[in-house]
Every structure is written in C-alpha cells, then in structure tokens.
Amino acid sequence: MFFFDDQYLENIALIDRNGSFLSYSDLTQKIKEFSSAFDRRHLVFIVGENDVSSIVCYLSCLESDMVPLLLSPKINLDQLKNLIEVYKPRYIFQKLEDLYANYSLALRDQAYSLLVNNNNLQVQLNSKLALLLTTSGSTGSPKLVRLTKKNLISNARSISNYLKISPDNRVITSLPFNYSYGLSVINSHLISGSSIVLSNASMIEGEFWKKINEHSVTGLSGVPYNYEMILKLGINRLKIPSINTMTQAGGRLDFEKMKTIYDGLKSKKIDFYSMYGQTEATARISYLAPNDIIRKRGSIGKAIPNGRLWIEDKNGKIIDQSDTTGELMYSGDNVSMGYANSLDDLNLGDINKGSLRTGDLAHFDSEGYFYIKGSINRFIKVFGNRISLDSVEELISSMGFECAVTGEENMLLIFVEDHPSLSTDSLRIEISSFIGINQKAIEISSISLLPRLINGKIDYKALSEGK
Fold it and tell me: SS3 string of 201-222?
C-alpha cells in the first residue's frame, strides 16, 4: 500500500466513531475493493471528513493513481458547483444526494455516494500529480496546490522522524481532513503503522475528551484557536493521562499563552512541539522542540529533517548575517509543484523545483533558529508610514484581546472581540503611540466573535466584506 507496508497488517489502523477497530489488513482490503470503482486516471472530488469512508476513498485514489481534491463538507454548494465547472472531475465522493448534470451513482459507501460523470471527459494530468489541496480554508477558490506522491511521503517520514512516531502511538483527528495540517497528521501516523481515532468533534465538546481516554490516545494536534479553547477549559482540569505529545501549527500563538500551555503540559509530562508550515510544502516546514519553547521565545525553530531554511534579501541574495530580516525560503522534497488556477494547469510540470518562497519575513539567530516577523503582503502605508499589520495584531494580543487587523488607504482597521476590560479609546491611544500615526487613522470595531476559516485562522476576507 502507498503509506504502509506488510509489517503493520495486524496493527490497528483506524478506530471509527462507534469504537470499531479496523486493522491495516482490513484497511488494505477496503482500499482494493473501493479502487475497483475507478476506470482510468482522472480527478476525484472528495467532500469528506474524519471517517473511515473518506480515508478509504483518499487512499484508494493514491493507490489507483487517481488525483483527489479534498474539500470540506461545509463548502457552499455554489462554490462546489463552480469548482466542478472549472475542473470537471470524473468522480465526486460526498454525502449529499444531489446528482449534478451528467453524473450518476457509481457506488455507495456508508453515508457516502460516489458519483461518476457519464461524458467522455478528456483531461490532461501531469504524470507526477497525486493530490490537490486548497490554499486556505476558503475552499471555493479555484486556486489549488499541486502535490506529488514524493511530497506526501517525504513530509510524512520527516514528521514521523522528529516526533518519533511509532506503531505504539495513537492519535485523534482534531483537525479537518481536507486541511493540510490535519491530513499530514493522518499521513504521518499511517506511515508509522500507528492507530488513528477518527473524530469530528470540537475540543470544546466532552465527547472529544471522552474518546481520548476511552481509546488511550497518546498524541494530539491543534492550531492556535484549538489551544485557546484548551486554555478556556483549563489545562489543569484536563484528565488525559495517556497523552504524551501535543503539537501546534497553523499560525502564531501568543507567547504568554504558549508559555501557559507549555508549563501546564510539562507538569503532566506531555511534550509540546510548536511548528510552522504551509500547504505549498505539504503542511510542515519547521519545528521547535519542547526544550526550546521557552529558551527560544517566538521562534519557529529549525527545518524538519531533510529540509533547509534560509533568508534572502529583496534582490534574491542569500543573507548570511544573523538577526537580519529578509524573505524566508525553504527547500525539500515536500515542496509542491506549484499552483493550479484552471483545468489546463493540472498538466503543468514542477514550477517550484524543490524551493519555496514562503512570503514571510524572517531572520535567524546566532544558533540558527528562525523567527517570523510578518507576511510580506501584510503591510500597508498610512500617510507615508509603512505599518506591519501582524505587529499591530501581536501588540493587541499581548494586551489580552482577540483581534484581527486589516487596512485600506490611510486607515488602519482593527476588529477586537468583546471583552469586559476593552476600552476602544484607550486601545486607540496605545496603538497610536506604538506605531506613530494619528489616532484619526485608526478605526476600532468591537465584535462578538471573529470570523474564522475551517483551519481556525481568521477569515480576513469575511471581515472586509462585512465592513
């Protein structure tokens, strides 16, 4: 099989929501049976979640040389139809009963239907293309990341290596199946012969924590938003004796919150890893080991095994001097082939050639640890002053407020979640002093809850549209 070999056949691979066990041998048989439904290499849209059927469909695609696009079941139907119109998939795997024009039922698998297009679709796919993922939680965008089998295997092995994942480990799915980080958790445990407890429950739900204890889960992953929920629940109140490793990626976590989490988990003898990554590099690029969390405050750590990080200036020259800011670059076998914006792009070759411009500004210290300073695109000019939106967000977060910062010509737009101690006037004065611009150029809106994407990141587009 693509992600695992015969040595793991007797191990438990998946534990479904009902508590039923599926061995790697059982999983292999299901993959073979499902694969028989595919007639030729083509696109497959998988509108799935963390369940046996979706994972079997995904692995069957990889095994049969099909090319799946993973999508959220929460995707707007109009957005889904737009993607179907743009990419013309041969197959659609979903729970919805809707039969689109020219599609008919090929098979049923539990609550899912595999639909097949009856037309003789002619689509040219690059021979190395193996998987398509959306570039963010906005799954209706036609912009997709083109990944190869080499990308998937390389990243899964690197993660298994530095997290020391073994067949004795057991992880729970705490992130969406179609989100690159969530998928990498699944891939890295499959390649290690580990067990995966399948759950779609939120960390705020009692059912989620019940499953952890019921199945003696050893590993848990989350994005900053997940850890903010854990903080609200209270780390000391969590009874999770089987957990020995927890990981965080998917965005910057405020250091004071990270320290609270680190201290709380350390008291429970749980190793906490902070990581940085991008879908364009098959999810994870760097990691900060538990012993460095406090010592290297705010660092994204060093490159994952078999990867390389460096800094370049605006002219593309490598920066050798520590503490000098430039664009963060990465190279490794997990770097994708590039983007697709149309059907024709699926036949493109490897544009990236193993190297990725992350679009993030960063520097490294004297020991080679890297630090993100913000996104190249997250800067605006206000009356001639160049303002880092990420720096303003970091300032407000350090004051204890959940926020999102955007901007337009000569105006800084700040959205802050309601809080008993929030004074927009006081906050405006503080920000004005910090960045050195007139208070009249700062607009602060208090909102009940910040809109978020499926990966927990702030949905800036929704904020702008609601403005």
Answer: CCCCCHHHHHHHHHCCCCEEEE
The predicted-structure confidence for 243-281, as pLDDT tens digits, reads as follows: 999 999 988 888 889 999 999 999 999 999 999 999 999
pLDDT given for residue 137 in this prediction: 46
Task: Assess whether pLDDT exceeds 50 at residue 173.
Answer: yes
Q: How confident is the model at residue 140, as a pLDDT? A: 55
Tell whether the model's pLDDT for residue 387 goes beyond 90: no
Helix (H) or strand (E) holding 15: strand 12-15
Q: How many CB atoms lie within 10 A of CB 189?
A: 27
For 402, list phi and psi in degrees, rounded to 5: -80, 125
**3 state DSSP class of 55:** helix
Q: What is the DSSP string of 404-451?
A: EEEEETTEEEEEEE--TT--HHHHHHHHHHHHT--GGGEEEEEESS--
Secondary structure, 3-state, 155-204? HHHHHHHHCCCCCCCEEECCCCCCCHHHHHHHHHHHCCCCEEECCCCCCC
Angle between helices 224-233 and 255-267 (to 10 degrees): 60
Kindly indicate the confidence band of residue 383, based on its pLDDT and cuts at 50, 70 and 90: confident
Helix axes 424-435, 389-398, angle to 10 degrees: 130
The pLDDT confidence band at residue 467, using thresholds 50, 70 and 90, is low
Q: How far apart are CA 80 and CA 86, in angstroms?
A: 10
SS3 16: coil
399-234-427 Cα angle (round to 5): 15
Q: Model-level pTM?
A: 0.88
C-beta separation of 88 from 102 below 8 A: no
pLDDT at 391: 86
Q: 415, 426, 405: which is closest to 448 by C-alpha?
A: 415
Give, in order, the Cα–Cα distances in Å from 154 to each of 150, 151, 332.
Answer: 6, 5, 8
- At 228, list the tokens: 């903010």
Region 388-397: what's the mean pLDDT? 89
Task: Decide the pairing of beta strands 370-375 and 385-388.
Answer: unpaired
Q: Which two tokens stand for residue 454?
A: 């499926």
